[in-house]
Amino acid sequence: MKGSNRILSWAGCLLLASGFHMAVVGAQAALGGDAAGYPNRPIRLITPAAPGGTTDYLARMLAIRLTETWRQQTIVDNRASASGVTAAEITKAAAADGYTLFIGYHQHTVNAAILPKLPYHPVNDFTPITQMTAAGLLLVVHPSHPAKTLKDFVAWSKSTKDPINIGNAGIGSGGHLAGELYKLMTGIKAQQIPYKGAGPALIDLVAGQYQFSFAGLAGALVQVRAGRLRALAVTAPKRLQALSDIPAMAEVLPGFEVVGWYGLLAPPKLPAPLVSKIHAETVAFVKSPEFRKRVENDGAEPIGSDPETFRQFMLADLKKWADVVKRSGAKFE
């Protein structure tokens, strides 16, 4: 009897252990840790922009690809408010199960440099998946501007006695910070004029209301190709393949670099198997000919980095702009 009781006791322990193991596996699957069964329901892809812009069309292109590949609908959720803070907060608070993803862009790290009470850390409170694209801004002037080249422009800005005004898409925008960096590196004095968006800023530059702007490539190229603005330089570290006739700012001002980026992030602590699966599919899309053709037409370049490289890139971007804001003394509130 004692031997039988011992056997029954061991059997009970094995059953209990087996049951606990199954419960853990079930919990992991419920949390999205089981990549083999992912996805089995719709995915929400949050974008911090209104329909129609660059962020939105990148999100919709990715959503179509994921829907076709995984046979589960990926729904774009536009949350255009508070310079992307609202969309980021929603993402941070979501379950780490792979069913909430976030298309972030350079404003995501810039916000940490200009908003002292940001309710999250833009890198540590998220799971980086991959950097999708990189693009510089475009230094543009009115066609009547005396500077015909970047070298001429730098010389003009240092020597002119007239007041200099720089238009930008809004306080804290990439163009605003690029203007502050230009002021720091050249020592010029200039007044920033913030607009409510890139469109209004470009309209006034076309009308000759101020001297120059560091503008988003997609919108500025439309005006340049129509002959309404003159492009003098890109702020990428080197010339863009699609715009090889336009120099990089660093060719005249070594170290001048402003990179706009788009990337895919997820809520914090997304399980590694899910990170790998989402990363692999997203990078396959970023490396596809259709994606490359679309983004290169807008002067951008596809990237497709690994998660750790993307994380380090964002940390460096955050540090850079925090330093520029501190050194320039620019006010953002």
Question: What can be said about this structure in brief?
Answer:
With 333 residues, the chain is of the alpha/beta class. The chain has helices at residues 2-30, 54-70, 85-93, 107-114, 150-159, 174-186, 198-206, 217-225, 272-286, 289-297, 307-328; strands at 43-47, 74-78, 100-105, 127-141, 165-168, 191-194, 212-216, 230-234, 259-266, 301-302.
Radius of gyration: 24 Å
Low-pLDDT runs: 1-32
- Give the overall pLDDT as a whole number: 87
SS strand fraction: 15-25%
Question: SSE order in H/E notation?
Answer: HEHEHEHEHEHEHEHEEHHEH
Question: How many angstroms does the end-to-end distance come to?
Answer: 81 Å
The percent range for helix content is 40-55%
Oligomer: single chain
Annotation, overall tally of beta strands: 10
Shape: globular
Largest sheet: 10 strands, mixed
* H/I helix tally: 11
Could you describe the 3D structure shown?
Helix 4 (107-114) packs parallel to helix 11 and helix 6 (174-186) packs across helix 11 (307-328). This protein has helices at residues 2-30, 54-70, 85-93, 107-114, 150-159, 174-186, 198-206, 217-225, 272-286, 289-297, 307-328, and strands at 43-47, 74-78, 100-105, 127-141, 165-168, 191-194, 212-216, 230-234, 259-266, 301-302. The termini are far apart. Residues 1-32 have low confidence and may be disordered. The chain is an alpha/beta fold. Strands 1, 2, 3, 4, 5, 6, 7, 8, 9 and 10 form a 10-stranded mixed beta sheet that branches.
